[in-house]
Amino acid sequence: MNTLRDKYCIVGVGETEYSRSSRRTTRAMAVEAIRKAILDAGLKAADVDGMLDYQGGDSTLANSVASDLGIRFNFYMDVMGGGSSTEALVGLAMGAIEAGMCNTVAIYRSMNGYSEFRIGGTGARAAQPVRGLDLAQVPYGMRSAGQNFAPTFMRHMYEYGTTSEQVAHVRVAHSKHASQNPKALLKERVTVQDVLNSRWIVKPLHLLDCCLETDNATCIIVTSTERARNLKHRPAYIMGVAGRVSKPRLDFHWAHGPISRVAGYYAKDIVFPQAGITPEDVDVTGSYDAFTFTTMLQLEEYGFCKKGEGGAYVSSGIIELGGKRPNNTSGSHLCEGYTHGMSMVIENVRQLRGTVDDYCPRATDGVHTYDYSPGHCRQVKDVEITMNLGWAMPATGSALIMRR
Amino acid sequence: MPQPVQYRGMALIVPDNDSEWKEFYEHARAHRLVVRKCNACGLMRYPPTHACPWCMDLGWTWQEVSGRGTIYSYEIVAHAIQPGFKALTPYAVVLIELDEQRGKPTADEALRVIANLVQPDFTPEPEANVAIGKRVRVVFQDLADHMALPQFTLSEEPAPGRLWRLPG
Protein backbone atom coordinates (compact mmCIF):
# COMPACT_ATOMS: atom_id res chain seq x y z
CA MET A 1 0.00 0.00 0.00
CA ASN A 2 1.32 3.40 -1.02
CA THR A 3 1.11 5.69 2.02
CA LEU A 4 2.76 8.82 3.43
CA ARG A 5 3.59 6.98 6.65
CA ASP A 6 6.17 8.83 8.75
CA LYS A 7 6.72 11.52 6.07
CA TYR A 8 4.84 14.15 8.10
CA CYS A 9 4.69 15.04 11.77
CA ILE A 10 3.15 17.27 14.36
CA VAL A 11 5.93 19.50 15.67
CA GLY A 12 4.14 22.12 17.74
CA VAL A 13 1.10 22.29 20.02
CA GLY A 14 -0.52 25.11 21.94
CA GLU A 15 -3.71 26.01 23.73
CA THR A 16 -5.25 28.77 25.79
CA GLU A 17 -6.70 28.37 29.24
CA TYR A 18 -9.88 26.28 29.40
CA SER A 19 -12.58 28.41 30.99
CA ARG A 20 -16.28 29.16 31.04
CA SER A 21 -15.73 32.89 30.76
CA SER A 22 -12.88 33.87 28.46
CA ARG A 23 -13.93 37.56 28.36
CA ARG A 24 -12.23 37.94 24.99
CA THR A 25 -12.74 37.24 21.31
CA THR A 26 -12.12 34.01 19.44
CA ARG A 27 -9.60 36.09 17.47
CA ALA A 28 -7.58 36.89 20.59
CA MET A 29 -7.68 33.28 21.76
CA ALA A 30 -6.70 31.87 18.37
CA VAL A 31 -3.72 34.23 18.20
CA GLU A 32 -2.52 33.08 21.62
CA ALA A 33 -2.89 29.37 20.83
CA ILE A 34 -1.17 29.64 17.43
CA ARG A 35 1.68 31.70 18.87
CA LYS A 36 2.21 29.12 21.62
CA ALA A 37 2.29 26.29 19.07
CA ILE A 38 4.78 28.15 16.86
CA LEU A 39 7.07 28.81 19.84
CA ASP A 40 6.61 25.24 21.09
CA ALA A 41 7.85 23.98 17.72
CA GLY A 42 10.83 26.32 17.78
CA LEU A 43 9.57 28.14 14.69
CA LYS A 44 9.02 31.79 13.78
CA ALA A 45 5.89 33.30 12.26
CA ALA A 46 7.66 33.48 8.90
CA ASP A 47 8.16 29.69 8.95
CA VAL A 48 4.42 29.04 8.93
CA ASP A 49 3.01 29.46 5.42
CA GLY A 50 -0.17 27.41 5.63
CA MET A 51 -3.25 27.54 7.84
CA LEU A 52 -6.40 25.47 8.30
CA ASP A 53 -9.17 26.02 10.80
CA TYR A 54 -12.65 24.73 11.50
CA GLN A 55 -15.73 26.30 12.99
CA GLY A 56 -19.49 26.51 12.85
CA GLY A 57 -20.13 30.21 12.30
CA ASP A 58 -18.82 30.83 15.80
CA SER A 59 -15.18 31.80 15.29
CA THR A 60 -12.62 34.04 13.55
CA LEU A 61 -11.27 33.25 10.10
CA ALA A 62 -7.63 32.57 9.24
CA ASN A 63 -7.14 35.84 7.35
CA SER A 64 -7.59 37.83 10.58
CA VAL A 65 -5.49 35.78 12.94
CA ALA A 66 -2.65 35.29 10.46
CA SER A 67 -2.39 39.02 9.90
CA ASP A 68 -2.32 39.60 13.65
CA LEU A 69 0.68 37.28 13.92
CA GLY A 70 2.54 38.46 10.82
CA ILE A 71 2.03 35.21 8.93
CA ARG A 72 2.00 35.35 5.10
CA PHE A 73 0.18 32.49 3.42
CA ASN A 74 1.07 30.20 0.59
CA PHE A 75 -2.09 28.26 1.45
CA TYR A 76 -5.05 28.62 3.78
CA MET A 77 -8.62 27.46 4.10
CA ASP A 78 -11.46 27.86 6.60
CA VAL A 79 -13.60 24.76 6.99
CA MET A 80 -17.07 24.24 8.40
CA GLY A 81 -17.19 21.57 11.04
CA GLY A 82 -16.78 20.55 14.64
CA GLY A 83 -15.72 17.18 16.00
CA SER A 84 -13.67 14.92 13.68
CA SER A 85 -12.24 17.98 11.89
CA THR A 86 -8.82 17.92 13.59
CA GLU A 87 -7.70 14.59 12.18
CA ALA A 88 -9.22 15.36 8.77
CA LEU A 89 -7.34 18.67 8.58
CA VAL A 90 -4.08 16.96 9.54
CA GLY A 91 -4.58 14.84 6.42
CA LEU A 92 -5.37 17.92 4.31
CA ALA A 93 -2.29 19.69 5.64
CA MET A 94 -0.15 16.71 4.62
CA GLY A 95 -1.73 16.81 1.17
CA ALA A 96 -1.13 20.53 0.77
CA ILE A 97 2.54 20.13 1.68
CA GLU A 98 2.90 17.00 -0.47
CA ALA A 99 1.44 18.93 -3.41
CA GLY A 100 4.10 21.58 -2.97
CA MET A 101 1.58 24.25 -2.05
CA CYS A 102 3.25 25.14 1.25
CA ASN A 103 5.72 23.87 3.87
CA THR A 104 4.29 24.19 7.35
CA VAL A 105 0.62 24.35 8.34
CA ALA A 106 -0.94 25.65 11.57
CA ILE A 107 -4.35 24.10 12.35
CA TYR A 108 -6.54 25.86 14.91
CA ARG A 109 -9.96 25.83 16.54
CA SER A 110 -11.10 28.80 18.64
CA MET A 111 -14.48 29.04 20.34
CA ASN A 112 -16.32 30.65 23.20
CA GLY A 113 -18.25 27.41 23.48
CA TYR A 114 -19.84 28.36 26.77
CA SER A 115 -19.90 32.15 27.07
CA GLU A 116 -20.90 33.01 23.49
CA PHE A 117 -22.15 30.26 21.13
CA ARG A 118 -23.17 27.37 23.34
CA ILE A 119 -22.26 24.12 21.63
CA GLY A 120 -25.09 22.21 23.29
CA GLY A 121 -27.66 24.26 21.42
CA THR A 122 -29.01 26.20 24.38
CA GLY A 123 -29.17 29.99 24.36
CA ALA A 124 -29.82 32.03 21.24
CA ARG A 125 -29.77 29.02 18.92
CA ALA A 126 -32.52 27.13 20.76
CA ALA A 127 -35.37 29.11 19.18
CA GLN A 128 -34.02 29.48 15.63
CA PRO A 129 -36.51 29.08 12.74
CA VAL A 130 -36.88 25.51 11.51
CA ARG A 131 -36.74 24.68 7.81
CA GLY A 132 -35.50 22.04 5.39
CA LEU A 133 -34.30 18.74 6.79
CA ASP A 134 -34.58 20.10 10.36
CA LEU A 135 -38.36 19.76 9.93
CA ALA A 136 -37.94 15.99 10.23
CA GLN A 137 -36.70 16.22 13.82
CA VAL A 138 -36.57 19.68 15.43
CA PRO A 139 -40.38 20.14 15.76
CA TYR A 140 -40.29 16.99 17.88
CA GLY A 141 -37.89 18.52 20.39
CA MET A 142 -34.81 16.80 18.98
CA ARG A 143 -32.10 19.35 18.30
CA SER A 144 -28.99 19.13 20.52
CA ALA A 145 -26.13 16.69 20.01
CA GLY A 146 -27.28 14.58 22.95
CA GLN A 147 -30.81 14.45 21.59
CA ASN A 148 -29.49 13.50 18.15
CA PHE A 149 -27.29 10.69 19.41
CA ALA A 150 -29.46 9.22 22.19
CA PRO A 151 -31.48 6.84 19.94
CA THR A 152 -28.19 5.32 18.76
CA PHE A 153 -27.02 4.81 22.35
CA MET A 154 -30.41 3.38 23.37
CA ARG A 155 -30.42 0.93 20.47
CA HIS A 156 -26.90 -0.20 21.40
CA MET A 157 -28.16 -0.95 24.93
CA TYR A 158 -31.08 -2.90 23.46
CA GLU A 159 -28.97 -4.90 21.01
CA TYR A 160 -25.90 -5.62 23.13
CA GLY A 161 -27.02 -5.25 26.74
CA THR A 162 -24.74 -2.26 27.33
CA THR A 163 -25.56 -0.56 30.65
CA SER A 164 -25.40 2.94 32.11
CA GLU A 165 -23.04 1.57 34.78
CA GLN A 166 -20.59 0.36 32.15
CA VAL A 167 -20.32 3.63 30.26
CA ALA A 168 -20.17 5.59 33.54
CA HIS A 169 -16.68 4.09 33.86
CA VAL A 170 -15.61 6.35 30.97
CA ARG A 171 -16.40 9.38 33.14
CA VAL A 172 -14.69 7.76 36.11
CA ALA A 173 -11.51 7.15 34.08
CA HIS A 174 -11.43 10.59 32.50
CA SER A 175 -12.02 12.29 35.87
CA LYS A 176 -9.09 10.29 37.28
CA HIS A 177 -6.96 11.61 34.44
CA ALA A 178 -8.20 15.17 34.93
CA SER A 179 -7.12 15.02 38.57
CA GLN A 180 -3.56 14.95 37.20
CA ASN A 181 -4.12 17.89 34.88
CA PRO A 182 -3.61 21.45 36.13
CA LYS A 183 -5.51 22.76 33.06
CA ALA A 184 -8.66 20.72 33.66
CA LEU A 185 -11.88 22.53 34.56
CA LEU A 186 -13.17 19.57 36.61
CA LYS A 187 -10.33 18.01 38.59
CA GLU A 188 -12.38 16.06 41.10
CA ARG A 189 -12.53 12.29 40.71
CA VAL A 190 -16.04 10.85 40.46
CA THR A 191 -17.48 7.38 41.03
CA VAL A 192 -19.87 5.29 38.94
CA GLN A 193 -22.56 6.11 41.51
CA ASP A 194 -21.90 9.86 41.08
CA VAL A 195 -22.60 9.47 37.35
CA LEU A 196 -25.75 7.41 37.90
CA ASN A 197 -27.01 9.82 40.57
CA SER A 198 -26.54 12.90 38.39
CA ARG A 199 -29.73 14.24 36.83
CA TRP A 200 -31.06 13.02 33.52
CA ILE A 201 -30.45 15.21 30.48
CA VAL A 202 -31.87 12.97 27.78
CA LYS A 203 -32.20 9.30 28.65
CA PRO A 204 -29.97 7.31 28.48
CA LEU A 205 -27.61 10.28 29.17
CA HIS A 206 -27.09 11.63 32.67
CA LEU A 207 -25.50 15.03 33.22
CA LEU A 208 -22.12 13.40 33.91
CA ASP A 209 -22.37 11.38 30.69
CA CYS A 210 -22.10 14.72 28.85
CA CYS A 211 -19.05 16.86 28.14
CA LEU A 212 -18.39 20.34 29.35
CA GLU A 213 -19.02 23.33 27.08
CA THR A 214 -15.90 25.47 27.25
CA ASP A 215 -14.18 28.63 25.98
CA ASN A 216 -10.76 27.92 24.47
CA ALA A 217 -8.49 27.89 21.45
CA THR A 218 -6.19 25.06 20.40
CA CYS A 219 -3.51 24.71 17.72
CA ILE A 220 -1.23 22.07 16.22
CA ILE A 221 1.50 22.49 13.60
CA VAL A 222 2.11 19.98 10.81
CA THR A 223 5.24 19.87 8.68
CA SER A 224 7.40 17.38 6.81
CA THR A 225 9.70 14.99 8.65
CA GLU A 226 12.59 16.55 6.75
CA ARG A 227 11.70 20.01 8.04
CA ALA A 228 11.09 18.63 11.55
CA ARG A 229 14.69 17.45 11.98
CA ASN A 230 15.98 20.82 13.11
CA LEU A 231 13.11 21.70 15.43
CA LYS A 232 12.81 21.79 19.17
CA HIS A 233 10.99 18.60 20.13
CA ARG A 234 11.00 15.00 19.10
CA PRO A 235 8.34 14.98 16.36
CA ALA A 236 5.12 12.99 16.57
CA TYR A 237 5.28 11.02 13.30
CA ILE A 238 2.01 10.55 11.46
CA MET A 239 1.56 6.89 10.53
CA GLY A 240 -1.98 7.03 9.22
CA VAL A 241 -4.95 9.35 8.92
CA ALA A 242 -8.61 9.04 7.93
CA GLY A 243 -10.74 12.15 7.55
CA ARG A 244 -14.49 12.50 7.96
CA VAL A 245 -15.30 8.98 6.92
CA SER A 246 -19.05 8.49 6.78
CA LYS A 247 -21.77 5.91 7.05
CA PRO A 248 -23.94 5.51 3.95
CA ARG A 249 -26.33 8.25 5.09
CA LEU A 250 -25.26 11.42 6.90
CA ASP A 251 -28.43 13.42 6.97
CA PHE A 252 -30.80 11.05 8.74
CA HIS A 253 -28.31 8.55 10.04
CA TRP A 254 -30.52 7.05 12.73
CA ALA A 255 -32.88 5.89 10.02
CA HIS A 256 -30.28 3.69 8.38
CA GLY A 257 -29.17 0.59 10.13
CA PRO A 258 -27.56 -0.71 11.98
CA ILE A 259 -27.87 2.58 13.84
CA SER A 260 -25.61 1.30 16.62
CA ARG A 261 -22.78 1.13 14.07
CA VAL A 262 -20.62 4.27 13.87
CA ALA A 263 -18.30 5.63 11.18
CA GLY A 264 -15.20 3.99 12.65
CA TYR A 265 -16.48 0.80 11.05
CA TYR A 266 -15.37 2.29 7.72
CA ALA A 267 -12.46 4.46 8.93
CA LYS A 268 -10.56 1.56 10.50
CA ASP A 269 -10.05 -0.03 7.09
CA ILE A 270 -8.35 3.15 5.87
CA VAL A 271 -6.19 4.09 8.81
CA PHE A 272 -4.82 0.78 10.10
CA PRO A 273 -3.47 -0.42 6.71
CA GLN A 274 -1.81 2.99 6.19
CA ALA A 275 -0.08 2.70 9.53
CA GLY A 276 0.69 -1.00 9.12
CA ILE A 277 -0.44 -1.77 12.67
CA THR A 278 -3.40 -3.32 14.49
CA PRO A 279 -5.29 -2.04 17.55
CA GLU A 280 -3.11 -4.27 19.75
CA ASP A 281 -0.10 -2.10 18.84
CA VAL A 282 -1.66 1.11 20.20
CA ASP A 283 -0.47 2.25 23.65
CA VAL A 284 -2.76 5.25 24.25
CA THR A 285 -6.12 6.09 22.68
CA GLY A 286 -7.90 9.40 22.37
CA SER A 287 -11.52 8.47 21.73
CA TYR A 288 -13.73 11.55 21.41
CA ASP A 289 -15.79 11.97 24.54
CA ALA A 290 -18.59 14.35 23.68
CA PHE A 291 -20.45 11.75 25.73
CA THR A 292 -19.37 8.65 27.62
CA PHE A 293 -21.12 6.60 24.93
CA THR A 294 -19.14 8.10 22.04
CA THR A 295 -15.86 6.94 23.58
CA MET A 296 -17.24 3.44 24.03
CA LEU A 297 -18.83 3.15 20.57
CA GLN A 298 -15.66 4.22 18.79
CA LEU A 299 -13.31 1.98 20.76
CA GLU A 300 -15.38 -1.07 19.86
CA GLU A 301 -15.89 -0.04 16.24
CA TYR A 302 -12.16 0.42 15.64
CA GLY A 303 -11.57 -3.06 17.00
CA PHE A 304 -10.09 -2.44 20.45
CA CYS A 305 -12.68 -5.01 21.48
CA LYS A 306 -15.37 -6.99 19.65
CA LYS A 307 -18.47 -5.17 18.41
CA GLY A 308 -20.98 -5.07 21.22
CA GLU A 309 -18.38 -5.54 23.94
CA GLY A 310 -17.54 -1.85 24.33
CA GLY A 311 -19.35 -1.66 27.66
CA ALA A 312 -17.19 -4.43 29.09
CA TYR A 313 -14.05 -2.87 27.59
CA VAL A 314 -14.52 0.60 29.06
CA SER A 315 -15.46 -0.77 32.50
CA SER A 316 -12.53 -3.18 32.73
CA GLY A 317 -9.88 -0.71 33.85
CA ILE A 318 -8.04 -0.92 30.52
CA ILE A 319 -8.81 2.72 29.66
CA GLU A 320 -7.53 4.16 32.97
CA LEU A 321 -4.04 5.43 33.71
CA GLY A 322 -2.18 2.36 34.93
CA GLY A 323 -4.34 0.17 32.68
CA LYS A 324 -3.24 -1.54 29.51
CA ARG A 325 -4.35 1.19 27.11
CA PRO A 326 -5.33 4.47 28.77
CA ASN A 327 -7.84 6.65 26.93
CA ASN A 328 -7.97 10.46 26.97
CA THR A 329 -5.25 10.93 29.56
CA SER A 330 -5.93 14.67 29.92
CA GLY A 331 -9.51 14.11 31.08
CA SER A 332 -10.51 15.60 27.73
CA HIS A 333 -13.99 16.80 26.85
CA LEU A 334 -15.77 15.31 29.83
CA CYS A 335 -13.46 16.93 32.40
CA GLU A 336 -10.69 19.10 30.93
CA GLY A 337 -12.93 21.10 28.61
CA TYR A 338 -14.65 20.74 25.26
CA THR A 339 -12.46 21.65 22.27
CA HIS A 340 -14.05 19.85 19.32
CA GLY A 341 -11.27 17.27 19.37
CA MET A 342 -8.00 19.18 19.03
CA SER A 343 -6.99 18.84 22.70
CA MET A 344 -6.94 15.04 22.41
CA VAL A 345 -4.42 15.23 19.58
CA ILE A 346 -2.35 17.73 21.59
CA GLU A 347 -2.38 15.36 24.57
CA ASN A 348 -1.19 12.43 22.48
CA VAL A 349 1.64 14.51 20.98
CA ARG A 350 2.79 15.29 24.53
CA GLN A 351 2.43 11.64 25.55
CA LEU A 352 4.69 10.65 22.65
CA ARG A 353 7.23 13.30 23.63
CA GLY A 354 7.10 12.12 27.26
CA THR A 355 6.43 15.68 28.42
CA VAL A 356 2.80 15.65 29.51
CA ASP A 357 2.07 18.77 31.58
CA ASP A 358 0.98 17.10 34.82
CA TYR A 359 1.97 17.95 38.42
CA CYS A 360 5.40 16.32 38.23
CA PRO A 361 7.95 19.08 39.03
CA ARG A 362 10.16 18.29 36.05
CA ALA A 363 7.42 17.26 33.63
CA THR A 364 8.57 19.60 30.88
CA ASP A 365 11.99 17.91 30.95
CA GLY A 366 10.31 14.53 30.57
CA VAL A 367 10.92 13.46 34.16
CA HIS A 368 7.84 11.77 35.62
CA THR A 369 6.96 9.85 38.79
CA TYR A 370 4.29 7.58 37.23
CA ASP A 371 2.41 8.02 40.52
CA TYR A 372 -1.23 7.98 39.43
CA SER A 373 -2.70 8.98 42.80
CA PRO A 374 -4.60 12.31 42.64
CA GLY A 375 -2.53 15.44 41.99
CA HIS A 376 0.50 13.71 40.53
CA CYS A 377 1.44 12.13 37.22
CA ARG A 378 -0.47 11.34 34.03
CA GLN A 379 2.41 10.43 31.74
CA VAL A 380 2.13 6.88 30.40
CA LYS A 381 5.41 4.95 30.44
CA ASP A 382 7.19 4.28 27.14
CA VAL A 383 4.45 5.40 24.77
CA GLU A 384 5.32 4.28 21.26
CA ILE A 385 2.03 4.60 19.36
CA THR A 386 -1.10 6.68 19.96
CA MET A 387 -4.40 6.78 18.15
CA ASN A 388 -7.06 9.48 17.99
CA LEU A 389 -10.65 8.59 17.17
CA GLY A 390 -12.50 11.75 16.12
CA TRP A 391 -16.29 11.95 16.23
CA ALA A 392 -18.72 14.37 14.65
CA MET A 393 -21.78 12.17 15.05
CA PRO A 394 -22.52 8.46 14.71
CA ALA A 395 -22.29 8.78 10.92
CA THR A 396 -19.02 10.74 10.65
CA GLY A 397 -15.61 10.08 12.14
CA SER A 398 -11.87 10.60 11.63
CA ALA A 399 -8.77 8.85 12.90
CA LEU A 400 -5.09 9.61 13.38
CA ILE A 401 -2.27 7.23 14.32
CA MET A 402 1.03 8.72 15.50
CA ARG A 403 4.28 7.24 16.73
CA ARG A 404 7.31 8.40 18.65
CA MET B 1 -44.73 32.87 0.69
CA PRO B 2 -46.95 31.51 3.48
CA GLN B 3 -46.46 32.81 6.99
CA PRO B 4 -44.23 30.72 9.26
CA VAL B 5 -46.23 28.31 11.41
CA GLN B 6 -45.72 29.02 15.09
CA TYR B 7 -45.36 25.82 17.09
CA ARG B 8 -43.99 25.48 20.63
CA GLY B 9 -42.05 28.71 20.33
CA MET B 10 -40.50 27.80 16.97
CA ALA B 11 -41.19 29.25 13.54
CA LEU B 12 -41.64 26.35 11.11
CA ILE B 13 -40.89 27.64 7.63
CA VAL B 14 -42.10 25.84 4.50
CA PRO B 15 -41.73 28.27 1.59
CA ASP B 16 -43.50 27.83 -1.75
CA ASN B 17 -40.27 26.65 -3.35
CA ASP B 18 -39.65 23.99 -0.70
CA SER B 19 -39.51 21.14 -3.18
CA GLU B 20 -38.92 18.59 -0.42
CA TRP B 21 -41.52 19.41 2.22
CA LYS B 22 -44.38 21.59 0.89
CA GLU B 23 -46.49 18.78 -0.55
CA PHE B 24 -45.54 16.41 2.26
CA TYR B 25 -47.19 18.72 4.77
CA GLU B 26 -50.22 19.31 2.53
CA HIS B 27 -50.73 15.53 2.46
CA ALA B 28 -50.21 15.44 6.23
CA ARG B 29 -52.88 18.17 6.61
CA ALA B 30 -55.24 15.83 4.74
CA HIS B 31 -54.12 13.20 7.27
CA ARG B 32 -52.16 11.09 4.82
CA LEU B 33 -48.61 9.98 5.67
CA VAL B 34 -46.65 9.93 2.41
CA VAL B 35 -43.11 9.02 1.40
CA ARG B 36 -41.38 9.25 -1.95
CA LYS B 37 -41.32 6.18 -4.15
CA CYS B 38 -38.74 5.81 -6.93
CA ASN B 39 -40.27 5.48 -10.39
CA ALA B 40 -37.38 3.31 -11.55
CA CYS B 41 -36.63 0.80 -8.76
CA GLY B 42 -39.82 1.15 -6.74
CA LEU B 43 -38.08 1.64 -3.39
CA MET B 44 -39.50 4.21 -0.96
CA ARG B 45 -37.51 6.74 1.05
CA TYR B 46 -37.90 9.22 3.90
CA PRO B 47 -37.24 12.13 4.46
CA PRO B 48 -38.24 13.49 1.01
CA THR B 49 -35.26 13.85 -1.35
CA HIS B 50 -34.81 14.36 -5.06
CA ALA B 51 -32.74 11.39 -6.17
CA CYS B 52 -33.16 7.75 -5.27
CA PRO B 53 -30.33 6.78 -2.88
CA TRP B 54 -30.50 3.22 -4.24
CA CYS B 55 -30.47 3.82 -8.02
CA MET B 56 -29.96 7.62 -8.41
CA ASP B 57 -33.09 7.98 -10.56
CA LEU B 58 -34.71 11.43 -10.42
CA GLY B 59 -38.29 10.27 -10.98
CA TRP B 60 -40.55 9.81 -7.96
CA THR B 61 -44.16 9.87 -6.85
CA TRP B 62 -45.77 10.37 -3.46
CA GLN B 63 -46.83 7.06 -1.96
CA GLU B 64 -49.21 6.86 0.98
CA VAL B 65 -48.14 4.40 3.71
CA SER B 66 -50.23 2.80 6.43
CA GLY B 67 -48.71 4.81 9.25
CA ARG B 68 -48.34 1.64 11.29
CA GLY B 69 -45.05 0.58 12.74
CA THR B 70 -42.91 -0.38 15.71
CA ILE B 71 -40.74 1.64 18.07
CA TYR B 72 -37.16 0.96 16.91
CA SER B 73 -35.39 3.24 19.41
CA TYR B 74 -36.28 6.20 21.61
CA GLU B 75 -35.06 8.81 24.05
CA ILE B 76 -36.69 10.59 26.98
CA VAL B 77 -35.84 14.28 27.09
CA ALA B 78 -35.65 15.42 30.71
CA HIS B 79 -33.79 18.67 30.08
CA ALA B 80 -35.38 20.47 27.14
CA ILE B 81 -33.16 22.64 24.96
CA GLN B 82 -35.95 24.45 23.11
CA PRO B 83 -37.88 26.86 25.37
CA GLY B 84 -41.26 25.65 24.08
CA PHE B 85 -40.59 22.12 25.21
CA LYS B 86 -39.63 22.88 28.81
CA ALA B 87 -43.20 22.54 30.10
CA LEU B 88 -43.57 19.16 28.36
CA THR B 89 -40.65 17.35 30.01
CA PRO B 90 -40.15 14.50 30.31
CA TYR B 91 -41.19 13.79 26.73
CA ALA B 92 -40.43 10.88 24.41
CA VAL B 93 -38.84 11.18 20.99
CA VAL B 94 -39.34 7.89 19.17
CA LEU B 95 -37.73 6.39 16.10
CA ILE B 96 -40.51 4.47 14.33
CA GLU B 97 -39.87 1.66 11.89
CA LEU B 98 -42.78 1.67 9.44
CA ASP B 99 -44.33 -1.66 8.40
CA GLU B 100 -43.68 -1.04 4.71
CA GLN B 101 -40.29 -1.99 3.28
CA ARG B 102 -38.76 -3.44 6.46
CA GLY B 103 -35.42 -5.11 5.74
CA LYS B 104 -35.17 -3.71 2.21
CA PRO B 105 -33.05 -3.19 0.19
CA THR B 106 -30.64 -4.58 2.79
CA ALA B 107 -31.34 -6.41 6.04
CA ASP B 108 -30.52 -3.32 8.11
CA GLU B 109 -32.65 -0.85 6.14
CA ALA B 110 -36.21 0.27 6.73
CA LEU B 111 -38.37 3.39 6.49
CA ARG B 112 -37.72 5.06 9.81
CA VAL B 113 -39.39 8.23 11.05
CA ILE B 114 -38.80 10.52 14.04
CA ALA B 115 -41.81 11.74 16.04
CA ASN B 116 -43.10 12.20 19.55
CA LEU B 117 -45.06 9.42 21.23
CA VAL B 118 -48.25 11.23 22.20
CA GLN B 119 -51.64 10.74 23.83
CA PRO B 120 -54.87 11.69 22.01
CA ASP B 121 -54.51 15.35 23.09
CA PHE B 122 -50.89 15.39 21.74
CA THR B 123 -49.36 15.61 25.20
CA PRO B 124 -46.44 13.22 25.81
CA GLU B 125 -47.22 9.57 26.49
CA PRO B 126 -45.99 8.79 30.04
CA GLU B 127 -42.48 7.41 30.06
CA ALA B 128 -43.53 4.12 31.66
CA ASN B 129 -45.43 3.26 28.46
CA VAL B 130 -42.52 3.84 26.08
CA ALA B 131 -40.50 0.80 24.98
CA ILE B 132 -38.63 -0.53 21.99
CA GLY B 133 -40.83 -3.07 20.24
CA LYS B 134 -44.22 -1.45 20.97
CA ARG B 135 -46.70 -1.06 18.11
CA VAL B 136 -47.72 2.44 17.11
CA ARG B 137 -49.86 4.25 14.54
CA VAL B 138 -49.69 7.71 13.04
CA VAL B 139 -51.91 10.60 14.15
CA PHE B 140 -51.88 14.10 12.75
CA GLN B 141 -51.47 17.26 14.78
CA ASP B 142 -53.06 20.08 12.73
CA LEU B 143 -50.98 23.25 12.94
CA ALA B 144 -52.31 25.46 10.10
CA ASP B 145 -54.47 25.32 6.96
CA HIS B 146 -51.55 23.93 4.99
CA MET B 147 -49.63 22.02 7.62
CA ALA B 148 -50.01 19.16 10.05
CA LEU B 149 -47.33 17.35 11.97
CA PRO B 150 -47.30 13.53 11.84
CA GLN B 151 -47.09 12.13 15.36
CA PHE B 152 -47.37 8.59 16.70
CA THR B 153 -49.51 7.03 19.37
CA LEU B 154 -49.57 3.57 20.94
CA SER B 155 -51.81 1.14 19.07
CA GLU B 156 -53.94 -1.66 20.47
CA GLU B 157 -51.98 -4.33 18.60
CA PRO B 158 -49.85 -6.71 20.67
CA ALA B 159 -46.09 -6.37 20.28
CA PRO B 160 -44.77 -9.03 17.92
CA GLY B 161 -41.35 -9.36 19.57
CA ARG B 162 -39.27 -8.42 22.57
CA LEU B 163 -40.20 -5.29 24.52
CA TRP B 164 -37.34 -3.33 26.07
CA ARG B 165 -37.07 -0.11 27.99
CA LEU B 166 -34.20 1.54 29.81
CA PRO B 167 -34.03 0.01 33.31
CA GLY B 168 -34.82 2.26 36.29
Report on the structure:
The complex is a heterodimer of chains A (404) and B (168). With 404 residues, chain A is α/β, with parallel strands linked by helices. Chain A has one domain: Peroxisomal Thiolase, Chain A, domain 1, CATH 3.40.47.10. Chain A has helices spanning 26-41, 62-69, 85-98, 145-160, 164-178, 192-197, 225-228, 264-275, 292-301, 310-314, 332-335, 342-353; strands spanning 8-15, 50-55, 75-80, 104-112, 200-203, 205-206, 215-224, 236-246, 284-287, 385-393, 396-403. In chain A, a hairpin with a 1-residue loop joins β5 (200-203) and β6. Chain A is globular. Chain B is mostly beta strands. Chain B has one domain (5-154): OB fold (Dihydrolipoamide Acetyltransferase, E2P) (Beta Barrel). In chain B, 5% of the residues lie in helices and 35% in strands. Chain B has one helix at residues 22-29, and strands spanning 5-7, 10-12, 34-38, 44-45, 60-64, 68-77, 91-98, 112-116, 135-144, 147-154. In chain B, β1 (5-7) and β2 form a beta hairpin. Chain B is globular. Classes of the chains: A alpha/beta (404), B mainly beta (168).
Q: How do the helices and strands line up, and which of them pair or pack?
A:
The complex is a heterodimer of chains A (404) and B (168).
Chain A: E1 8-15, H1 26-41, E2 50-55, H2 62-69, E3 75-80, H3 85-98, E4 104-112, H4 145-160, H5 164-178, H6 192-197, E5 200-203, E6 205-206, E7 215-224, H7 225-228, E8 236-246, H8 264-275, E9 284-287, H9 292-301, H10 310-314, H11 332-335, H12 342-353, E10 385-393, E11 396-403
Parallel strand pairs in A: 2-3, 2-4, 9-10
Antiparallel strand pairs in A: 1-7, 1-8, 4-7, 5-6, 8-11, 10-11
Chain B: E1 5-7, E2 10-12, H1 22-29, E3 34-38, E4 44-45, E5 60-64, E6 68-77, E7 91-98, E8 112-116, E9 135-144, E10 147-154
